[in-house]
Amino acid sequence: MDIAIIGSGNVGGTLARRWAAGGHTVRFGSRNPESEKLTALVAEIGDNASATTIAGACEGADVLVLATPWSATEDAITAMGDLTGRVLIDCTNPLKDDLSGLAIGTDTSGAELVQGWAPGARVVKALNTTGSTNMENPAYGADTVTMFVCGDDAEAKGVVTELVSALDFEVCDAGPLSAARYLEPTAMLWIHLAYQQGLGPNIGFRLVTR
Ligand SMILES: NC(=O)c1ccc[n+]([C@@H]2O[C@H](COP(=O)([O-])OP(=O)(O)OC[C@H]3O[C@@H](n4cnc5c(N)ncnc54)[C@H](OP(=O)(O)O)[C@@H]3O)[C@@H](O)[C@H]2O)c1
């Protein structure tokens, strides 16, 4: 697949590395596509990666990935252009600026705001409930981390399920996009356990069933 990734930090960089290694083409959409840091990242990933403007990356891509800080997300979406009909993976978490908690929630979610900023896009919330360390490697012995995915468009969710499975996560369909109201607090729990409770980033949530 041809994947546009908006944001080239911990999440964007890690997802790009993994998908490119799996044979997908990744194009970073960046405010500074020629920056030293991004040039080095593209060179490290190799032939399957490139960087351009945010609008340029989105042109013709099969899937668009939002991996921006929450405070930059609305502006990034505006820079992406018309997203009608496009599959958009929202990896963001609507964190307060000091990371002390979620800025919104319970009766809406970041994902639903993203949908409002990108009318007509097929928004799927995914890859927000675990750290980028687990995106690099979700395996814990024989087990793997569960990745919750939610969205209102079944076909888009299918595409995202394929891409998330390719990262070696076990995918759990959490239902409609409004279930992001539960996924975003789940991300906050992961952050709390990792950084306030001192468990560190090598932890992950796994759904067990019987
Ligand atoms: N870190 C994690 O483990 C983790 C896990 C799950 C979800 N998340 C969520 O994923 C999102 C990204 O997290 P991150 O840790 O990857 O952040 P990060 O390392 O700070 O990277 C964010 C990237 O967004 C781009 N960006 C920054 N300001 C921007 C703006 N005003 N307009 C457009 N792009 C801008 C930058 O790329 P350019 O300089 O190339 O534009 C930057 O590299 C956040 O919402 C976070 O809550 C993070």
What does this structure look like?
By secondary structure, the protein is an alpha/beta fold. The protein has a single domain (2-196), classed as Rossmann fold (3-Layer(aba) Sandwich), CATH 3.40.50.720. 38% of the residues lie in helices and 20% in strands. The protein has eight helices and ten strands. It has helices at 10-21, 36-45, 54-58, 70-80, 110-117, 132-136, 154-165, 180-196, and strands at 2-6, 25-29, 49-52, 63-66, 87-90, 122-125, 139-140, 143-144, 146-151, 170-175. An eight-stranded mixed sheet has the order 3-2-1-4-5-6-9-10, sandwiched between helices. A two-stranded antiparallel ribbon has the order 7-8. The radius of gyration is 16 Å and the shape is globular. The structure holds NADP nicotinamide-adenine-dinucleotide phosphate (NAP). NADP nicotinamide-adenine-dinucleotide phosphate (NAP) binds at residues 7-12, 30-32, 38, 67-70, 72, 75-76, 91-93, 95, 128, 131-132.
Please render the helix and strand layout as text:
Blueprint: E1 2-6, H1 10-21, E2 25-29, H2 36-45, E3 49-52, H3 54-58, E4 63-66, H4 70-80, E5 87-90, H5 110-117, E6 122-125, H6 132-136, E7 139-140, E8 143-144, E9 146-151, H7 154-165, E10 170-175, H8 180-196
Parallel strand pairs: 1-2, 1-4, 2-3, 4-5, 5-6, 9-10
Antiparallel strand pairs: 6-9, 7-8
The structure holds NADP nicotinamide-adenine-dinucleotide phosphate.
NADP nicotinamide-adenine-dinucleotide phosphate (NAP) binds at residues 7-12, 30-32, 38, 67-70, 72, 75-76, 91-93, 95, 128, 131-132.
Quick structural gist:
Helices cover 38% and strands 20% of the residues. With 210 residues, the protein is α/β, with parallel strands linked by helices.
